[in-house]
Structure formats: structure tokens, C-alpha cells
Amino acid sequence: MDNLADFAEPAAPAPLLPLLTLGEAQDVEVLAAVVAGERADVDLARSLAMNLAARVPSRD
User: Fold this and answer.
1) CA angle at residue 53 from 44 to 56, to 5 degrees?
2) How far apart are the C-alpha atoms of 28 and 35, rounded to whole Å?
3) CB 44 within 8 A of CB 27
4) How far is CA 53 from the centre of its chain?
5) Structure confidence by residue, pLDDT tens digits, 4-37
6) In 10 A of CB 30, how many CB atoms?
7) Which residues lie closer than 8 Å to 37 by C-beta, 6 or more apart?
8) How does pLDDT run across 30-56, given as a tens digit for each residue?
9) Which of 12, 29, 30, 45 is most open to solvent, judged by the fewest CB atoms within 10 Å of its CB?
10) Residue 59: which region, alpha, beta or left (left: phi > 0; alpha: psi -120 to 50)?
């Protein structure tokens, strides 16, 4: 098809930063325990939640 030459190749997407480190991904079970109302390490849950919140862009 000769018409394919009319289309430019799209630019490659920008690389994304990982949302979680490997250690944080393994600690997600702590947040799941908090959500489920189970006992969890409060300091670890608070630290993980704050680190995740710092990486999420605001809606403003």
C-alpha cells in the first residue's frame, strides 16, 4: 500500500519511573492488612503510604 508512506512513525513514549521499588512492592501486604482492619506495623504502613503519596501527581 503506497498510502502507508503518508503516516509518520509515532514518537517513542517517554520512559516511566517505577511507582514502587522492589522492597515497597513486597511491603504492599502491610497496606492490605491496614485496609482489611488487621494488625500491621504502623510505622512501616505510614512510611510506605507517605512514599507512595509523594509519587502520585496531584490533580491540581
Assistant:
1) 145
2) 11
3) yes
4) 10
5) 666 777 787 777 666 677 887 778 888 888 889 9
6) 21
7) none
8) 888 888 999 988 898 888 888 888 877
9) 12
10) alpha
